[in-house]
Amino acid sequence: MNEKIIETHDLTVYYGKHRGIKDVNLTVERGEAFGFLGPNGAGKTTTQRVLLDVIRPTSGKATIFGMDCRTQGVEIRKRVGYLPGELALYKDMKADQFFMMYEYLRGANGSKGFWRELAKRLDLDVSRKIGNFSRGNKQKVGIVAAFMSRPDLLVLDEPTSGLDPLIQQTVMEMVREVKADGRTVFFSSHILSEVQAVCDRVGIIREGQLVATQSVEELFAARLNRMTLIFAGLPSVGTFDIEGVTELERTEKSVTLEVRENLPQVLSVAAKHNIQDIETHNMSLEEIFLEYYGKGNGGSHA
Amino acid sequence: MLRLIWQELKFRRGAIVGWGLGLCFFPIVYIGIYPSVADQMAGFADLEFYKAMGMSLGTFEDWVASILIALMPLVASIYTITNGTGTLAGEEEDGRLEMVVTLPLPRWQVVTAKAVALTISSFIIYSIVSVVSLLVFQSIESQIETTLVAVDMFVAVFSAWPLVFAVGMLSIFLSAFCSSRRFASTISAAILVVSYFGNNLSNSTTELEPFKPFFLFTYLDATGKAVAEGQQAGDVTVLISIGLISFVLALFFFQGRNLTVGAWPWQRAKIES
After folding, report:
1. What's the gap in Å between the CA of B11 and the closest CA on chain A?
2. d(CA A194, CA A210)
């Protein structure tokens, strides 16, 4: 996993005076699935569009496979499958006509007809007009179009948006297969459970700036433990003034703590105060994500 | 790129058939009825109102020039405006263009394919109408007084195509420039209508004379003489040049700008090299 597939250096995009992304530095290596997390308007789609040369950076640089996204976009796109977040398709075409057109324009590169297999797997009726499809079926068309050339890199913007849970699972399975095949996936999502399930690393973008890039394991290792201690007689205020521990809430019989370190000391102090029960609560990726956003107050609408 | 051109042409199949048949209304009706209205038309030869509308109805050649050379390109240009602005700005607005520009194709090929497809489709439409004009003329030739032969009719009708081409490329340029289909089509239509009436009115009043070079219809001779002898090579060259310059400008502006952002050129951030 050493070869760098995506690299950005101080990547900045401004739409006039409005911020798109600012000084984004990230690296995605071969064979990994990288989850790009952030609320609407944080800059996820902007970053992906810069990678595909749909939008040009105001400053900074982005490379894919070591090639400059601005000047070598054609060579890059030969090896990239892309699913846009705001998917728009030719409504008058049947799905199979669309895939044949897409294959014809891309060049099949040894993957001729692979779309049939993908469509079958996603339970997509390719004989119907795209204009008659539900949102979920249109999304399936976009997913098939992204995967059909067996690209070295998949850039997916909210891939499971509008899909039913069973198909979401299938798509995640397809992502795992791409990863197992040594290929790379860069995808943005709001659904943290799927990021947690398939990603090796995640990047969290907030108001256009990358605030964290960590492996999912590291993110969980750094997670905060919350525990509610229930006492027969409540200990006095200040009892849990221990380094790495924050008292969050206090009721008649319980104290809720956020414990970042010194857990044995917390338990020792609690034992001295006639503790009756302990309720622990490990933070999910979603809660960790919200921590980065100040309990969900972050993000803007660019 | 040939693949993309072919695909763009396939998208326009319906429009080619529809507009081709629709525009045949002009030769079928207006040439077809001429034998029955010829005497009446001769009386309208010198009316100022018709002159202001770019029409001179005295002879069969004048009649053909007024309808098929002056008026029909105005209608045919509606096709090139709707298609030219729809193909870049329209597809950008509804998001389809993102699926195309993220294919392994350089942007200049995307613009070129769309421009070539629009040019070929308008060429085919005009060819259909020109052939139908020839056939209708043959059917009434014996009933009218004219020195024209059938091939003159084909050439006369087809000679208006360079104006339609110029309007189409102007639309593509505006579409590449501003990303708003409504704006691009409004400006294109305004140029077309102002050119039409401006040129016609400038024949009646000297006040518009200085502006005449800016009207596209100045370079389309819609008189009986042009029907008999053909368009001036210089005028055809001007119209083709306007089309080609517009195409080059379209390439330039589309190559350098962000897509799917919807910002006007002056609102876009300066990109560092």
Report:
1. 9
2. 20
pTM: 0.79
- Between the alpha carbon of residue A284 and those of residues A68, A222, A248, A269, A288, the distances in Å are 37, 11, 18, 27, 6
The 10s digit of each residue's pLDDT in A68-112 is: 998 898 999 999 999 988 888 888 889 999 999 888 888 766 678
For A103, nearest residue in chain B (alpha carbons): B103
Pick from A3, A2, A9, A1: nearest CA to A63: A9
Amino acid identity of A19?
A: R
Q: What is the DSSP letter of B220?
A: S
Question: Are A84 and B269 inside 8 Å of each other by CB?
Answer: no
pLDDT digits (tens, 9 = 90+) for A1-25: 578 999 999 999 888 778 888 899 9
Alpha-helical runs (H) found in chain A: 44-51, 73-77, 95-106, 114-121, 135-147, 165-180, 192-198, 216-221, 263-271, 285-292
> CB of B95 within 8 Å of any CB in chain A?
yes
Question: Given B103, B104, B258, which is nearest A56 (Cβ)?
Answer: B258
CA A55 from chain centre, in angstroms, equals 20
- The ipTM assigned to this model is 0.75
Determine, for residues A52 and B102 on separate chains, whether the beta-carbon distance falls below 8 Å. yes
Give the model confidence (pLDDT) of B72-89 as tens digits. 999 999 999 999 998 888
Q: What is the DSSP letter of A129?
A: B
* A73 neighbourhood in chain B, CB within 8 Å: 106
The answer to whether B17 and B125 are in contact (CB under 8 A) is no
Longest dimension (CA), chain A: 75
Nearest to A4 by CA among A70, A67, A59, A55: A67
Nearest CA in chain B to A55: B258
Which residues of chain A are within 8 Å of residue B267 when distances are taken between CB atoms? 15-16
Q: What is the pLDDT of residues A34-70, one digit of tens each?
A: 998 887 788 888 899 999 998 888 899 999 999 999 8
